[in-house]
Amino acid sequence: MNDGDPNDLAAMFWRDALEEPANASMLDEASCRQLADNIPTLCWIADGDGYITWYNRRWYDYTGTTPEQMKGWGWQSVHDPEVLPAVMERWTAAIGTGKAFEMTFPLRGADGQYRPFQTRICPMRSADGLVARWFGANAEVSDQIRAAQLLEEANERFQAAVRATHGVLWTNTPEGEMRGEQSGWAHLTGQSYDEYQGYGWADAVHPEDAQPTIKAWNEAVRSRSTFKFEHRVRRHDGVWRRFSIRAIPVIDNADAIREWVGVHTDITEQRDVEDALRAMNETLESRVSEVAADLDRVWRNASDIFVVIDGEGLLHRVNPATTAILGWSEAELVGRSVFDLIHPEDVPLSLGALEHARTQVLPTFENRYRTKDGGLRTISWVAAPEGEWIYAYGRDVSAERAQQADLAVAQEALRQSQKMEAIGQLTGGVAHDFNNLLTVIRSAVDLLRLPDLSEEKRGRYINAISDTADRAAKLTGQLLAFARRQALNAETLDVGRSISAIGEVIGTLIGSRIRYSTTLPDAACHIFADSNQFDTAIVNMVANARDAMQSGGVLTITVAPVSSIPALRSHPEVHGEFVAISISDTGTGIPADQVERVFEPFFTTKGVGKGTGLGLSQVFGFAKQSGGEVLVKSEVGVGTTFTLYLPHVEGVDRHGAGEANMSPLPDGHATCVLVVEDNADVGEFATRSLGELGYHSVLAPNAEQALAELDRGGRRFDIIFSDVVMPGMSGIDLAREIRDRYPDLPIVLTSGYSHVLAQNGTHGFELLHKPYSVDQLSRTLWKVLEQGRRGSAVS
């Protein structure tokens, strides 16, 4: 037993008190139990079968239980359920063998916390040698376990610290000799146990360093001072490594050295770096001079601008290229603010760039500088701050920007050339369709001139003229929308609706010899693309299909959602959500050796004068520009299918058709309209129509006359109705002028087509498209008048 162990003391007490007759005569059992209640150890007594009959008070205080709860086998309730099976196994085995045993396990306290207890259980035998009782003692060992853990953790941290410094730990005797097992040293040097004993370790030290090391070591041992040294050690693989050594004496309570503890730390790389730095420093001055000379040559000979400015934008240094590009001399530039030279339109952006460059690197930035001869140069800058200065590097990109502008013009011209080819394809069909429409109108007019015409026939002929005019207006609108010149403007499109919208154009293009059908999905398929370019691409592919079916055939347009673009033209398959628009014909087909060339600009298989070769190149360019692809499959004598793949996007159908407004036409109620129309026939029709609807109207043949009418009394007019395209001042300029003079006077514009409106919108004015019906004219004027009245009421 261990001296002072509570379990050992308790066990001796019970053995002596209960088993020895002499002691039993001195203390009865009650006295023994009273004494046991006051010791810190948890004690208990069980009969020979393991049935516990008594616990000391300390047991109940710790567990928070009662004698009734603990009697017999109740003690199991305060054991950890996960450990209890092992305890029961050991306890049962001890009862069977009658042998004492020791075990550490957790017991639950009154606070619900489990704490470790070291338990010793020993048998008390009767005179016949049988186990009469079992005595158990449980001593809490939380502190001991925690102390052991802390010691182990401290040792692990110390070992880790040594390893982190590439160190080797060793110990020596108070006399300074290496004795005993030194695993770290043996691993480092490869020396055996016998080889490094005493001063044998010095055999692993470099011969030049061994004696100096021993001398310094002996002096440290003699003076009991910290040992610091540096020497080379031969590693187990024969490589010499440089080490820093530090050792200290461990002093005991009697002020005697108990041992020396030392660490060898590998500093080979550190010393190599220091040696390299020394070598570099030896040549640094010469290198600095060389670099300075190089920088000066770059400064003087560079073709790009180098300047040094302060945080306010004042120039402090400029290189010769700066003076050459801008035309100002160095004397004229130094001390001058860069903002004196920057184009006024670029000053706000340049101020922001300077603010950025004061504290961090400035990304590529462009602005325009005035030259001494009055010209402008576009400079692309990068800059970085260094102390109070900003170092800026500028490249003259004026020529590049001019080339880009020329390229943009050329690309726009190419797009228009491609579009004009498509328009040219339409010309013959358009003339044919308009002749048919005019034939219907002319015939209906001739029939209306017949005498004694019944009202039923008169109404039928009038309706025929009206319906035919609507068809002509629809076809004209589609052609104008298709032909308009405007910048690319991507928007969300419903592909099926867009295909349907140009159905009249497609029918006109292919003629009556070719049967035409479409297959559209039930759900809308949306793309994000320029609508005009999309229509142009469809027309170009349809025209190509038509030319392949000179003897007639079938044209099919299919729209469907797909989950990938197949591999084509050396590109791998692309997965994602796409919309596939396929245009199939039953024409002559394309030879296999020409399929890959059909998208090349100016490549055509048609005869001279029958094609420029730009149509399909427009399709290819549009597909790439919109993030998609175009695929062609063809078989000679069978037909060709062009499939345009475009990325699918989420969209909202913005073309929801409203129900026809069948309410009666609103009465003009003597509302006065200023009609501005340069075409006399159209102007007369408009004023007569307005008169029939109850409006008063005044006709002005141009914008100047309209302004004169307003000057004579602008308040007499309730609304302005003006054409857009007129000689002199346009309708848009007129509307702006009127809006400035009379902000509350409503304005409606009308036009069959205007490139200004197509490019820039209606500028906030209501637009009525020509040709318009009396119904459309009346309802548009009334809608704008009502909007004006509501606005006045709110204000």
TrEMBL record:
Residues 429-650 form the Histidine kinase domain. Residues 101-153, 227-279 form the PAC domain. InterPro entries: CheY-like_superfamily (IPR011006), HATPase_C_sf (IPR036890), HATPase_dom (IPR003594), His_kinase_dom (IPR005467), HisK_dim/P_dom (IPR003661), HisK_dim/P_sf (IPR036097), PAC (IPR001610), PAS (IPR000014). Transmembrane segments: none annotated. Residues 28-72, 291-346 form the PAS domain. It comes from the Bacteria. CDD domains: HisKA, PAS. Keywords: Kinase, Phosphoprotein, Transferase. The modification 4-aspartylphosphate is found at D723. Its EC number is 2.7.13.3. Residues 672-785 form the Response regulatory domain. It catalyses: ATP + protein L-histidine = ADP + protein N-phospho-L-histidine. GO terms for molecular function: phosphorelay sensor kinase activity. PANTHER family: PAC DOMAIN-CONTAINING PROTEIN (PTHR43304:SF1), PHYTOCHROME-LIKE PROTEIN CPH1 (PTHR43304). This is histidine kinase. It comes from Sphingomonas adhaesiva.
